[in-house]
Amino acid sequence: MAEREREALAVIERVFAEELGRDAPVDPARPLGDLALDSLEVTVLVVELEDHFRVRLDHADAGGLATLGDLARLVASKAAKASKASSASQAEAGEAP
Predict the structure, then answer these.
(1) Which N-terminal residues, if any, form the signal peptide (predicted)?
(2) Which CATH number fits domain 3-80: 1.10.275.10, 1.10.1200.10, 3.10.180.10, 2.60.120.430?
(3) pTM, rounded to two decimals
(4) Distance from CA of residue 11 to its chain's centroid?
(5) At what angle do helices 68-92 and 3-14 cross, to 10 degrees?
(6) Which of 19, 26, 23 is nearest to 42 (CA)?
(7) pLDDT under 50 in the chain at which residues?
(8) pLDDT computed for residue 82 by the predictor
C-alpha cells in the first residue's frame, strides 16, 4: 500500500472516530454498503478528504468504489495527479515546487 493510500485511510479513520462517532477500526476491505452511512455522513467524509488532500471528488468517481480501500486508492490517485500537475505548472512558471 502506497504512502498516500495509508494517509487516506488514516484520514478516513479519524473522520469516522472524531466526526461520525464511530470507534470501530477502519478495514480497507469493508464494503461501503456495510457502513450504513447516511447522506450527511458521506458528505462529511468527502469534504474532509477533499480538504485534506486538496482534491475534488464527484459522483462520477463513486461508480467504481466498492470498499474503503477503493476510496483510499481513488483519493491517493487524485492527490498524486494534483501534485504532479501543480509541480508541472510551477516548473513552467519558473518556480520551485
Answers:
(1) none
(2) 1.10.1200.10
(3) 0.82
(4) 8
(5) 120
(6) 19
(7) none
(8) 86
Looking at residue 7, its pLDDT comes to 96
Distance CA 93, CA 71 (A): 33
Write phi, then psi, for 31 (nearest 5 degrees): -65, 140
Contact assessment for residue 28 and residue 9, using Cβ atoms and an 8 Å cutoff: yes
Three cell numbers at 27?
A: 478495514
| CB neighbour class for 33 (10 Å; exposed up to 12, middle 13-18, buried from 19) | exposed
Q: Report whether 80 contacts 8 (CB < 8 A).
A: no
**73 alpha carbon, distance to own chain's centre:** 7
CB 74, CB 61: distance < 8 Å:
yes
